[in-house]
Design goal:
It is built from 6 helices and no strands. It is mainly alpha-helical. It has a domain of 66 residues: lambda repressor-like DNA-binding domains (434 Repressor (Amino-terminal Domain), Orthogonal Bundle). Helix 1 packs across helix 5, helix 2 packs across helix 3 and helix 2 packs across helix 4. This is XRE family transcriptional regulator.
Length: 108
């Protein structure tokens, strides 16, 4: 006779994680407001239109790395500063890290 295997229990639904572009946009807006800069001032310094910067800040656009570097630079931020700040904001949302076997354990 065949063994009856019960169905696995369904996972509890998780809150959807925010998109990277939304988190980056929110951080850029926060930093711009902290400095007291207008959208136009920051966009001019970055060499982009105020409309495009607004779309980036609202998470509507997924800018290239060159564009992100330009906007970050206009706010006196490095890409590392920006990325670290966004990653820190993800920490409470991130799922617990899974225990991964080390490369040494796999080689044994």
């Amino acid at each position: 006779m065949a063994e009856i295997v019960p169905f696995p229990k369904p996972r509890a639904p998780r809150e959807p994680e925010p998109l990277w572009r939304q988190l980056v946009g929110a951080e850029l807006r926060r930093r711009r407001h902290e400095r007291g800069d207008t959208l136009t001032e920051t966009a001019d310094a970055a060499g982009i239109s105020p409309q495009y910067l607004s779309e980036i800040e609202r998470g509507m656009k997924d800018p290239s790395s060159e564009m992100m570097a330009a906007v970050a630079g206009a706010l006196d931020l490095s890409l590392l500063d920006l990325t670290s700040a966004v990653a820190e904001g993800l920490a409470p949302v991130a799922a617990p890290a899974r225990q991964q076997p080390s490369a040494f354990a796999l080689a044994a």
